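User: Hi! I have a protein structure encoded as tokens and I'd like to know what sequence might fold into it. I'm fairly new to this, so please keep things simple.
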């Protein structure tokens, strides 16, 4: 049974880790870089993962303000956060249901 439980829980864990992987946005939010006037350079926020900044910029979550400075597009960030949260909750409900079903008599 423990193997069955771990096989059900692992996908939820993997989704959660992948969702929290976007480490570039947090420092910009903490620095309140939310407009072109408050835009910051990744190096000034001790962000070393330039690829994460590029990915966030490609998705439209970080906006290039010129001269290597970026700020957070709050509308897109909040929308993406809601979608990711809904996906994690949905996956959690499915994993929970499968876990319960696996422990019922006759479950395989």
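Assistant: Happy to help. Inverse folding works backwards from shape to sequence: for each of the 108 positions I chose a residue that suits the local structure. Here it is:
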């Amino acid at each position: 049974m423990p193997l069955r439980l771990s096989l059900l829980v692992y996908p939820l864990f993997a989704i959660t880790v992948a969702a929290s992987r976007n480490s570039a946005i947090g420092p910009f939010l903490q620095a309140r870089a939310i407009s072109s006037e408050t835009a910051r350079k990744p190096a000034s926020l001790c962000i070393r993962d330039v690829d994460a900044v590029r990915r966030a910029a490609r998705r439209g979550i970080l906006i290039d303000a010129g001269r290597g400075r970026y700020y957070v597009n709050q509308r897109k960030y909040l929308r993406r956060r809601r979608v990711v949260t809904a996906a994690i909750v949905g996956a959690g409900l499915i994993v929970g249901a499968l876990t319960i079903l696996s422990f019922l008599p006759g479950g395989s």
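A useful reference point when you look it over: Strands lie at 62-66, 69-72. Feel free to ask if any position seems puzzling.
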